[in-house]
Every structure is written in structure tokens, then in C-alpha cells.
Design goal:
Radius of gyration: 12 Å
Pfam family, one: cREC_REC
Protein name: Cyclic-phosphate processing Receiver domain-containing protein
Helix content: 40-55%
Number of strands: 4
InterPro entries: cREC_REC
Number of helices: 3
Strand content: 5-15%
Structural class: alpha/beta
Largest sheet: 4 strands, parallel
Strand order of the largest sheet: 2-1-3-4
Order of helices and strands: EEHEHEH
């Protein structure tokens, strides 16, 4: 399954859209994801951001041997994009190349 986390953009064909980090994390925990595309700013920072998903994946990779899906960031927020991409690079290095697209 390909999951697209975003609050505004149109969902690409073939992707399942989620609006909040907890929805993406629930699907990740279920283990059926092959690809994940993340926006950062989701309209309500109190409910979380795309970076929260990156942090969850990072923790699961380091503590539970989680195998991440291929990940990318589609956020227009330049500084958040850099932070999220740095987290993804760390995840990919630790996971031995898993999660690369």
C-alpha cells in the first residue's frame, strides 16, 4: 500500500490518503506499507506533523527492528523538509538501505 499524508493536495492515483500522523502510524504499525509520502504542515500542529511520523519510524527502526517503507517528503516547508529528509537518511542508513525509493 502507498500512503500519502497531506491535508490539502490532491492524492496521487494509486495512493491511500491520510490526513493526520496517527492515521499514518496506525497503517505503518499494521505493516502493509510499501511507500510513504509525507507533508509536514497538516493544518493543526497540536495533532502533529509529518515529522512526527518520521520520528515514530526512527524509534521503531532503532528499538524494534521495524523495516521502513520507501519514503519521500513532498512538503513545501523548506526547513521542515530538510529536517524530515535528514531523519529519513538516518533511518535508511540504520535499516541497511531499506526504505529507499
Amino acid at each position: 500500500m502507498k500512503v500519502y499524508l497531506d491535508d490539502e493536495r490532491a492524492t496521487p492515483e494509486g495512493w491511500v490518503r491520510v490526513y493526520w500522523p496517527d492515521e499514518a502510524i496506525a497503517l505503518l504499525a499494521g505493516g502493509a506499507l510499501t511507500h510513504l509520502s509525507l507533508d509536514h504542515d497538516l493544518g493543526d500542529d497540536a495533532r502533529g506533523t509529518g515529522y512526527d511520523v518520521v520520528l515514530w519510524i526512527e524509534e521503531q527502526v532503532f528499538t524494534a527492528g521495524f523495516r521502513p517503507p520507501a519514503m519521500r517528503v513532498h512538503s513545501a516547508n523548506a526547513s521542515a523538509r530538510e529536517k524530515m529528509e535528514a531523519g529519513i537518511r538516518t533511518i535508511e542508513r540504520y535499516a541497511g538501505g531499506a526504505g529507499t525509493e
